[in-house]
Amino acid sequence: MEPRPRSFYVLAGFFTLFMLFLYGPTITIGILSFQGPGGGLTFPMQGTSLHWFRDLFEKQAVGDIWGSFRRSFMLGLMVMVTTVVVSVMGGLAFRKRFPGSSVLFYLIITSLVIPSILISLGVGLMFSQGGLDVHWATSGYGAQLTWTLPFGLLIMFAVFNRFDKSYEEAARDLGATPWQTLRHVVLPIIAPSLIGVALFGFTLSYDEFARTLLTSGSYNTLPLEIFGMTTNVTTPVLYALGTLTTAFSLVIIGVFLCIALWGARRKAKVGSDAGSGLV
């Protein structure tokens, strides 16, 4: 076996440092969240226990942790569904050029380069000046869509750019209607990409701070609640909350990956059965 070149160890060391820089803060918060009842916000740790996790499920003197979590979860689901539906419709629409398609494309992408706080300010002003309530489920929902929709549309543009139209032509030759072609041919083929768009939409919404700051009204979402707690909470309960929300995010990612894996295996099984003449 040939010895590894020195550059390998240099790159490996650099990668290790990068991973520590990337995940070190999250790991540190996770460790500090398991302190004992007398624990503080910094090292050294004062014992180990699940005290601060139990404290999360008791009535808090400050903040509305579980109310803000429910709002973030519901808002994430709303944004996710809307992002998937609109992204698929947009991807289908942009398969053929139409008057103004280039201008519309750049208008969609523009929201990614405008500072998020300005988007939040603009949406909040628009709702307030229009006599509408500034609320997390209306103005906050609209502001977050300016963040998730461009990503979803870009993914769908890439998917449909590589899509083989011969599948649709074969379906139409067999007598399928446009709706049947979309439902039974196009959507099953792009299903893994739809799962990716859904995951993007939910996770981007769940932890969005800047675009929700001036559009949530009097009810905070979870990121805003955590930010508010940093000014008046001086116990590791804040770290326990961060650890739980991180674990929740990982669980959501795991669920989406399991769905994608199940869909891929089901598709492979159907193809195998079809090839063997069982269906």
Automatic annotation (TrEMBL):
The name this protein goes by in its record: Inner membrane ABC transporter permease protein YdcV
Subcellular location(s) of the protein: Cell membrane
InterPro entries linked to this entry: Bact_Polyamine_Transport, MetI-like, MetI-like_sf
Mode of membrane association: Multi-pass membrane protein
PROSITE patterns: ABC_TM1
One GO biological process term: transmembrane transport
Keywords, in A-Z order: Cell membrane, Membrane, Transmembrane, Transmembrane helix, Transport
GO-annotated cellular components: plasma membrane
UniProt xrefs under Pfam families: BPD_transp_1
Main localization of the protein described in the UniProt heading: membrane
Species the sequence originates in: Tropicibacter naphthalenivorans
Family recorded in the similarity comment: Belongs to the binding-protein-dependent transport system permease family. CysTW subfamily.
Ranges where the ABC transmembrane type-1 domain occurs: 69-256
Membrane-spanning residues: 7-34, 73-94, 103-127, 147-164, 185-206, 237-262
Lineage per the UniProt record: Bacteria, Pseudomonadati, Pseudomonadota, Alphaproteobacteria, Rhodobacterales
Highest taxon of source: Bacteria
